[in-house]
Every structure is written in structure tokens, then in C-alpha cells.
Structure to design on (215 residues):
């Protein structure tokens, strides 16, 4: 199969923001005396902000009113925005810019498919915006991963079929979303976490545009 486009998740694939989300949730958890573990944080990757809060409150066995949840969602995002204030291109993950340059030169279309409502801010801070033909983020979808909406909208925006797109994802929810959308998916990270992906690579270091023909 020869693909016509690459669809990238943002957090954990192009940039190293997972640590900031983790810190922001940990700070929020202090409000209800809950300490989020790294294992739990792994399960929040790719999951929308509101769904993440619901999961954390469940783990904490804490019942919050809708009004309280709204306040905490804002507080978490304020914490997060504070933590990413000084984010810059040095936080782009290794090999990413080289790979983007190669696929662009070879004529592949490039789209973003992220659950984050902060995606455009992060792309600006890291100077990645110009690479993208289409950007679909958490503001443009009504259903979060593992629903395929974010990737299907990406393919549609590019005018391509799902079968012409290949997705790069670091989260189980995102791998499931790509599969549900009928797309090939490359996991970025560990095979023990991303076993359902068609192939798993640790990062983009040494990955060539030509490798797309073998995925
Ligand atoms: C995903 C992250 O990309 O975006 C999640 O993996 C995060 O950790 C989600 O909760 C939503 O992000 P934001 O920026 O809208 O709170
Ligand atoms: Mg991710």
C-alpha cells in the first residue's frame, strides 16, 4: 500500500508534553487529596481533558458537582498553560523535524489529529505550524479518542480516503481510534503498551520517508 498522507498525534508524538499534563493533574489532585500515579497517567494519554477529570475523580472515589468539575477543568488548564509558558522548539521530540522534512519533500500531505484544545498554541510555540496542511484538534471534534472522528476529519480535510492515511500515535486510545477509522497506525513508544498498532517504533530517530512503503 502506498500512502498519501501522514496524520500525527501531537502530545507524546511530536512534542514532549506528557510530563506537563501529568504535573498539572497532580497539582489539581491536591484539591481533593489525591496523588496520581505514573501508571494512571499512562491511561490518560490521548484522553480528553474532561474525560481525564472524570477518570481521576473515579480513581479518587470523589463525587463532584458539575459546577465543581468546570472549575477544576479550568484550574487544570491554567496549571498546564503556566507549565508550557516557556515551551520552545527544543521540546520537539528527536527525529521529528527530519522526518517531517523528508515526507514533505516526497509529496506526502501532513495533518494533525490531536485531542488537545491547546494544540495550536503548542504548534506555534514549537514553530511546527507551517508543516501542516490540516489541523484537527480538540476544539474541532465532538467525540474523543478512541472514537475515530479526529482522524476521519483529518483525512476528509485532506480530501483522502482513510486507507490512504497512516497515523502516528503514542496512546492506546489513539491507536484504537486509528484502527476504528480504517487507518494503518504506527505506535510511538513501547510495544507492551501499543500492541494493537501495525508496527511500534521507539521514536522517529533514523526513520526515513521510504520506510512508509514498508509499514
Ligand atoms: C491529549 C493528551 O493529546 O490531549 C492528554 O495526551 C490530554 O493527556 C488531552 O488530556 C487534552 O488536552 P488539553 O490540552 O485539551 O487539555
Ligand atoms: Mg499522544
Amino acid at each position: 500500500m502506498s500512502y498519501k498522507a501522514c496524520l500525527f498525534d501531537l502530545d507524546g508524538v511530536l512534542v514532549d508534553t506528557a510530563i506537563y499534563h501529568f504535573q498539572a493533574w497532580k497539582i489539581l489532585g491536591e484539591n481533593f487529596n489525591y496523588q496520581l500515579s505514573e501508571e494512571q497517567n499512562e491511561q490518560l494519554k490521548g484522553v480528553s481533558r474532561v474525560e481525564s477529570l472524570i477518570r481521576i475523580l473515579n480513581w479518587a472515589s470523589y463525587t463532584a458537582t458539575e459546577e465543581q468539575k468546570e472549575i477544576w477543568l479550568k484550574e487544570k488548564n491554567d496549571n498546564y498553560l503556566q507549565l508550557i509558558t516557556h515551551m520552545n522548539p527544543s521540546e520537539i521530540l528527536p527525529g521529528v523535524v527530519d522526518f517531517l522534512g523528508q515526507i514533505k519533500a516526497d509529496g506526502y500531505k501532513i495533518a494533525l489529529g490531536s485531542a488537545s484544545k491547546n494544540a495550536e498554541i503548542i504548534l506555534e510555540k514549537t514553530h511546527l505550524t507551517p508543516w501542516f496542511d490540516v489541523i484537527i484538534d480538540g476544539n474541532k471534534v465532538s467525540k474523543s479518542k478512541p472514537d475515530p472522528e479526529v482522524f476521519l476529519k483529518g483525512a476528509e480535510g485532506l480530501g483522502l480516503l482513510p486507507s490512504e492515511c497512516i497515523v502516528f500515535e503514542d496512546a492506546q486510545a489513539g491507536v484504537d481510534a486509528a484502527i476504528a477509522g480504517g487507518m494503518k497506525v504506527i505506535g510511538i513508544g513501547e510495544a507492551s503498551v501499543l500492541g494493537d498498532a501495525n508496527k511500534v517504533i521507539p521514536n522517529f530517530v533514523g526513520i526515513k520517508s521510504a520506510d512508509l512503503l514498508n509499514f
About this structure: Strands lie at 5-8, 109-113, 134-136, 165-169, 184-188, 199-201.
